[in-house]
Known about the structure:
alpha/beta, Rossmann fold, 5-stranded parallel β-sheet, 13 helices, 7 strands, binds 2-acetamido-2-deoxy-beta-D-glucopyranose
Amino acid sequence: MQFARVVAQILFIQCFITTCLGFGFLAPVGVALGGIAASAICRFKECCSEHAIHADFDGLEVALKKHIYGQHLVLDIVTNALRSHWDDTHEPQKALTLSFHGWPGSGKNYVTKFIIENMYKYGSKSKFVHHFIGRMHFPNSDKVSEYQENLHQWIKGNTTNCGKQLFIFDEIDKMPPKILNIIKPMIDYRDDVDGVDYRGCIFIFLSNTGADLINEHFLEIWKEDGVMREDLKLEDFEPLITKGAFNEEGGFHHSDTIKSNLIDHYVPFLPMERRHVRLCILDEFKQRNVTNPREEYVNEAMAFIEWGPSREKLFSTTGCKRISQKVGTIVTKYKLNK
Ligand SMILES: *[C@@H]1O[C@H](CO)[C@@H](O)[C@H](O)[C@H]1NC(C)=O
Ligand SMILES: *[C@@H]1O[C@H](CO)[C@@H](O)[C@H](O)[C@H]1NC(C)=O
């Protein structure tokens, strides 16, 4: 371990200068060297520091603009909410809570991936990033109190070590109800819960709940002449989502969290139309170094998509999910990147 040797040397010099030689007036040098040693350690090891939590919001904004299609509301809300939460000029009043809603493949996980990558140097490997998946981590509805106890311990333990944690709860709608009630005190307006300050933390909830309402509403508006997708505003959706999340089964079912308005932003992911799916396909080709794929290849990828609702056939029922694999197959089959 190279850095262990460096640290040992620095500690040795520090000891030599401050104690062994008895030059008390050189103590500040020792302290300074100690500081250098600490920051040297944090170059190799993940510390609760700006080096590891680099919070690159400009990078996030660019990445979302480049790779997320047809989601102007998402682009409006997400980066700004995160940026202002960690703004140095004022302390947040509570932990930031974002709730993402939409059909599968509309980009909820994709956006989350960019958030993780741009905020934490070590991305999804960061010890400050926690990803809980409904069916995987909370499969058993008889074990709610056990899950709650674990969650409480983990969130508390991690936040005690570092105040800038990111907790992601995926598949909220597939979680037994009530589990999430345990986090309520941690996302509330309190600067201290049993000696721990949770206000720097970020919680992101992902679910399909409310998606049918979003899509129906979108369809209604689409049928009215002259209203463009890009004209849709957040206010059009927020009440629908709270209603949907509240009435459907799953983690937020009759939940205290929603009742007491502790979710800061409901973020609706709109269903993907043909033009957006097309952009996803082109992006996937580009990521494989195929910049101008022939129309027949694009169409071949499009042919895998199912369209709904049954009458209008306007949206991809799976959004841009699995497009990556389809494009990968096409690129290999026709040797397009050779
Ligand atoms: C931090 O969270 C993880 C789960 O993501 C858990 O396994 C670990 O025990 C927690 N650490 C502390 C100190 O509670
Ligand atoms: C794309 O091209 C770049 C540079 O030409 C290369 O470094 C990269 O590995 C290529 N990516 C793929 C997926 O082939």
